[in-house]
Amino acid sequence: MGGFWSGFKINSKEIAEHQNRIDIRWLKKQGCLRRGITTTLSWECRGVKTGAIQYHVEDNHVVLNYLYRRNGNEGESVEQKIFFDRTPCNYGGYRRWLRCPRCYRRVAVLYGAGKYFFCRHCHDLHYLSQRESRMGRLITKASNIRRRLGGSGDLIGVPFPSKPKNMHWKTYWKLRIESENARTYSLMIAAKRVGIKLDEEETV
After folding, report:
1. Helix (H, G, I), strand (E, B) or coil at 96
2. H-helix or E-strand containing 154?
3. 169-192: b or e for each residue (b if 16 or more CB lie within 10 Å)?
């Protein structure tokens, strides 16, 4: 059975965090942008493989090869060429970017939210934080602070976590007040939505 916040859902529009993606910063860190490299990039979610592509790096572009499946149909073979771009850094050298194959925007990440890898704007994706309501953001803030202090993110029926070792009391109480205030205001919003008048001291 759901808690007090049950039924208040985030807008279900596609979000970027749930898509397979190609991040040029990660590829560079892994040493996977050298000319001539041919390798496989794969993704997992909770231990389950969600996709894989083969890519080959040339001087000014990378070539992707993969199977695109939709609604359980047989895979369609896709080859996609993505060009690089670069901008100078303040202290010498340059930074490499990907060019979105559709809008040619210079980006660090492309998303596989359809048949082809395009930028977030072309796929009309939003970050999770953008899709949350004000109440959702407050709940997330309160839960994240509890987890940061080594406790559970559950806001109901679980005591607030104790001060971690080596953390200053001033820092601990600052975070505790922020978390409790966020929880209080989210509860007041939820109560208002269902027609309950709730004083602030009643939520503590």
Report:
1. strand
2. none
3. eeeeeebbeebbebbbbbbbbbbe
What residue spans of the chain are helical by DSSP H? Answer: 24-29, 128-131, 134-148, 169-193
| Tokens found for residue 167 | 């953390």
Contact 96, 8 (CB under 8 A): no
- DSSP letters of 6-55? TT-PPP-S-BGGGS-EEEHHHHHHTT--STT-EEEEEEEETTEEEEEEEE
For residue 83, which of 69, 68, 64, 111 has the smallest C-alpha distance?
64
Low-confidence ranges of the chain (pLDDT < 70): 1-13, 46, 72, 128-133, 193-204
> Mapping DSSP to helix (H, G, I), strand (E, B) and coil, where does residue 186 land?
helix
Burial group, residue 54, by CB count within 10 angstroms (0-12, 13-18, 19+): middle
φ, ψ (nearest 5 deg) of residue 122: -70, -30
Model confidence pLDDT, tens digit, residues 81-94:
999 999 998 888 88
